[in-house]
Amino acid sequence: MKVTYIGHATLLLELGGVRLLTDPNFDAKLGRILPRVSPPGIALEQLPTLDAILLTHAHADHLSFDSLERLPRSIPLFAPPVIAKWLRRLGYTHAVDFAPGESVRIGDATIRAASATHRGNRYGYDRWRSSANMYLLDAAETAFFAGDTALVDDTHHLVEKTLWVNERELDLALLPIGYAPWWKPGFRRGHLTHDDALTLFERLRARVLVPYHWGTFRHVTATAHDAIRRLRERVDEQKLHTTVRIIEPGESLEVVKPPAQ
To answer: Tens digits of per-residue pLDDT, 3-19?
Structure first.
């Protein structure tokens, strides 16, 4: 299994002979005022042939219409049903409903969806469009992609009910990290801090954590590197270098499943 960090929540995942792209955003700016601080790790035009696109929710940093316009419409685009329906109305006929609790088979990989704890509506007035998904990818290896979510008691339930009950473990946890100043206490109601990500990593019982959602856009209340600086400090303190693998935009990581005992 191979993961390449393109930037923010855009990752190229290769497992079971299948190539998947998550939350594609190759924009130079987030909105009109938040510049990209590092170029995409892979230019959109240089992407390999993709088997599917996984979209978690409608926020502009995860759903870029400009990027979708530049991607082939022959690639299935899986999204929460209310988002997929909206996309189809806008002309993205390759958008496919993917509801929590459902699964889809793509080549030798099975993908399962679950609800994330995140209000993902695009605009302030469209709360009916707030659905957000998390995904579990299962081939010979397994990977969990959280999209955006808060840390709640059952954030790990998709892994628990799919893998643990079958005496299997999670190989790779792909988790977002963020930072909010003390005066923004509501941040954790829909996002993970670097500490929350480490806690969820432990709950997921994954072998490897790769953090994302950093190093890409400068935000209003935080720089692009606030969260990753804090995570690096914690990794150094707790000597987690073998399990927490920080890859820069454009870098890839091969996650090799250990031999059966």
So the answer is: 999 999 999 999 999 99
Phi, psi dihedral angles at 115 (to 5 degrees): -75, 140
Strand 142-145, strand 103-106: pairing: unpaired
As a CATH number, domain 2-253 is: 3.60.15.10
Residue 129 to residues 32, 126, 189, 218, Cα–Cα distance (Å): 23, 6, 18, 25
Question: Which tokens hold the place of 243?
Answer: 């399990």
pLDDT at 134 over 70: yes
Please give the model's pTM, rounded to 2 decimal places.
0.96
Q: Which two tokens stand for residue 170?
A: 């999670």
The answer to whether residues 92 and 73 touch, using CB atoms and an 8 Å cutoff, is: yes
Domain ranges for the chain, please list them: 2-253
Question: How far apart are the C-alpha atoms of 65 and 99, rounded to whole Å?
Answer: 21
Q: Is residue 261 predicted with pLDDT exceeding 70?
A: no
Q: 74, 81 in Cβ contact below 8 A?
A: no
